[in-house]
Request: fold
Amino acid sequence: MEPKRYLITSALPYANGLKHIGHLAGAYLPADIYVRYLRAQKRDVVWVCGSDEHGAAITIQAMKEKTTPREIVDKYHAILKSNMADLGISFDIYHRTTSPIHHETAQEFFTALNDKGDLEIKDSEQYFDVEANTFLADRYIVGTCPVCANPSAYGDQCENCGTSLSPEQLINPRSTLSGNAPIKKATKHWYLPLDKYEDFLRKWILDNHKEDWKANVLGQCKSWLDAGLQPRAVTRDLDWGVQLPANVEGGKGKVLYVWFDAPIGYISATKQWALDNKKDWKPYWNDKETKLVHFIGKDNIVFHCIIFPVMLKMYGDILPDNVPSNEFMNLEGDKMSTSRGWSIEMEDYINDFVKKENGGDMMVDALRYYLIAIAPETKDSEFTWKGFQDSVNGELVAIFGNFVNRAFVLMHKLCKGKVPPLHQDFIDESDKDLLQEIRNSKIKIEELIEQYKFRDALTAVIDLSRKGNKYLQEKEPWIKAKGLLEAKPSMNLDAKEGQLLGLQAQIDNCLHICLQLTANLSVFINPFLPFTAKKMCHMMKVVDKILEWENGGKSNLLSVGYSLREPQLLFRKIEDSEVIEQIDKLKTKRAYNMLENIITENKEPVKPTAVDIKAEIQFDDFAKIDLKIATILYAEKVEKADKLLKLEVDLGFEKRTIVSGIAMHFKPEELIGKQVVVVANLAPRKMRGIESNGMILLAEDADGKLHFVSPENVIQSGSGVS
Reply:
């Protein structure tokens, strides 16, 4: 039965920094496709999201930037909201959890559960930093992950392997505030009794949704349930967050734990949307005929499939109908991570491809296309700049854009810029087949979107344009037009007239069907590439109403005799130079990120040892040597050369390749971000076929171990050494 209304949510991003395209691909772009499709279906749908502005991640960032949590969330909320809009993410509301209506809603939610006795109150021991004189939230505790041995796992999650953790599971935990090992100290907190809802969750998830939920979601839920659920604290001893209601005994100085308050943000955002649009918010959360769908990444499965549903069950609201979670998107062979400097921020893509050129909208859709094409719907995927180039150039430009452009060019050339008639007497089997393909494609795309298989649905749209190209190539209307001009004058008039009519009818039919296909492609591509669909509407001189889903599959969307505009460039090719520039930028960012981490460590100086002094030189000899500070951006082993490493270094004014015989002393990954002294004016020399442009200075201790000659503090690459 068709739901009466739809409530769509996307995971609230932390307002503690820029977000990368992996976030976009995980929870926001898939939801945008689904919502645009529902809107085209004229269904009652509301899509809510907003910034998650509480929790330790915010206060940690505030300390890093030496400012206040309020200034941090104000800054990044504005950036996130702008970035999403620039990339075509069409929320009905992008709210924030620091708003008064959210604090009221979260406190009301807590009060309702607490007053009914649904929450448990326990005295327990929590980690406490003696030097900082504060209880430590999970994100203020780091230690070794018990699963993958990552030494920098957080108290709530290991960002290396994705495992959800508790501080007690960490090996050798330490405070991020002081660096000391924390102690345990008694405190009182409120708990959500998840263990009492195991049977409900098992039946609701594993029985009722075993057919329609993704396997990765079901698998993670089953793993949690099989391990046994434990009560989970919903409060924390912090200053920043939603304060417990004033009338709660023992609640002074405590806030709602961020995982408890954040999903309530969906409700408060719906309330704000309703106020802004003079609607009633309650049916969207209380009416069983509402279909609630959460779009998330896999690191949020436990919160949206186990914890929040228990909260909603206790509160009496509806439960999610589906939680289509995506896996992770990696980048150029490594896990995407802003903290490690290995990511493509949405802000950077917008600045590099959208805002710096005219027609930036086409570059928004280029990114959307590639992210959908490699969407991590069932397993982790990988973004590469070469893959981006191949996908845009080989599919968007060469297939979809090529078909639309050819249809319009030929229509202007052979049909005077107007939609030609369809001659029923001259329709052949290939005409009928393509018209049927249009109808079949609508059904196929619709079914795939309804099943949250957006990657396959987009493939079906591109395949339809590919069939259009094949049809056009086989029909060859340009050849038939040439035949019209070359009709023999000596031909019998009646025969000649019949032949000319037949040729013209075939040209008309071919281009009529191609133009109707183009109109259908605008309908089908709209949920995925909205800017492209609007540009196609402009070319066809039609209003956006044509993009309504009911128009898909029809063969009369463009009226006979209707004048159409000249074709516009839908997409542009991605050049090799752009790929090289972006990869170089990525390596540079990671190098400087690692450099920042290196300078925070205290290292013992290398004790100098006596060595033989070489023959005396004059000052003029030394003055010929040009020594510069360089930053190592990239390092890899040279094939079939055990001792050689190929290094890419940044000299400030240029980047160079240097081959160095240090492979026996250093691992390539250890060198990235290292600042070194380079002989910059050494004549180039080929080693193993690689031209080396410079030499890195090193010191050798008494044990034969090499050490880099590096500046004491980080300085500008290219600085002279004297």
The chain has 20 helices and 25 strands.
